[in-house]
Amino acid sequence: xxxxxxxxxxxxxxxxxxxxxxxxxxxxxxxxxxxxxxxxxxxxxxxxxxxxxxxxxxxxxxxxxxxxxxxxxxxxxxxxxxxxxxxxxxxxxxxxxxxxxxxxxxxxxxxxxxxxxxxxxxxxxxxxxxxxxxxxxxxxxxxxxxxxxxxxxxxxxxxxxxxxxxxxxxxxxxxxxxxxxxxxxxxxxxxxxxxxxxxxxxxxxxxxxxxxxxxxxxxxxxxxxxxxxxxxxxxxxxxxxxxxxxxxxxxxxxxxxxxxxxxxxxxxxxxxxxxxxxxxxxxxxxxxxxxxxxxxxxxxxxxxxxxxxxxxxxxxxxxxxxxxxxxxxxxxxxxxxxxxxxxxxxxxxxxxxxxxxxxxxxxxxxxxxxxxxxxxxxxxxxxxxxxxxxxxxxxxxxxxxxxxxxxxxxxxxxxxxxxxxxxxxxxxxxxxxxxxxxxxxxxxxxxxxxxxxxxxxxxxxxxxx
Length: 465
Prior knowledge:
This protein has 465 residues and is of the alpha/beta class. It has 2 domains: 1-41; 43-351 and 419-459, Alpha-Beta Horseshoe (Leucine-rich repeat, LRR (right-handed beta-alpha superhelix)), CATH 3.80.10. The protein is built from 19 helices and 13 strands. Strand 6, helix 12 and strand 7 form a beta-alpha-beta unit. The longest helix is centred in the last third of the chain and has 25 residues, at 391-415. 32% of the residues are buried.
């Protein structure tokens, strides 16, 4: 292994670039491994454990400062390392392609506890990055205080920006500056912390020419009385409807009238995560996504989900459902249609949540689904029956429903999808009789894993089983 050539090592290290423990240990093997691993680690050095890494990063970055700047910073009582970057084994900053503002803020606190001094250090760091980085691919500028696009070299760095993460607390004029430099961003992630001013962000979105991934996350609890508070954002997004393939919109407010008009225009979507509060049936039928692979919607919009699935191109692999609303209208019939549309239109489905009452027709549809959908890897099943009130009857009914469901699962798995993992939040299946049956099929390789978890983990389809 230690004799692999550099090209093979690079491919291995690049594939495992998110595993910092592995990469750091590789640096100690020999010189070739070290020379191959350092450039990969330094492409995005901010993504690793900062508590472990911050002194190392601070010393290396400050070593690049000129003697004049070091002298000035030292006069401000800022602590700097004694060595120069000329004594380093590698030109580390020449490998870097990313900036994370929050991490830079943490690192500069090493030099001084003074906010003013930290600001000075940050400014010098950004100046270095603009000079030394060959290109800037990733920028996470949440909480930024510096208008780094004013550096002379900034235009050449920002032209190559691939991914931008930001928040709405940043002054809107900052986004006007970025809009002049960054028009080929492919991934844009926005955290909405201030719902009052979207002018600058809308401008930045609107000028993009190759935007493929867009994510908007509301993370505030402020009430906004405006009827269409997201209109500027959605109209700017509409200009990118022909390029966006992944759209994740986490809106807090439901009083939006622009989304039903804009969303049907995104015909190339592979990922769609949003809400469908104000969509009527006619508007839903206009949402046709033939390339859709990942889809998330709330439980109480099962009717909407069924329409989206029915109009998809048969490529859906992953469906996620938001929090379960037990009192949603007509959820029994909606879930029946949803299950039927899945097995009719999603032969490639791998991740699937289902909620249904324990009726015969629902069990029949589930059995049919399991026969057709042979690629299933993770199946979430929620049975609800709120007609049961007495505890003794409830326990008896739960066992009856579980027995019926297990019969369907066992019959179907033997014929189709071996190696599937199953999560449940019902601890009834922890009883000895069920354990014996489940372990039998785990040992035979029919079921990869069967675990009881909290409802939160079970409802989260991204939970690692």
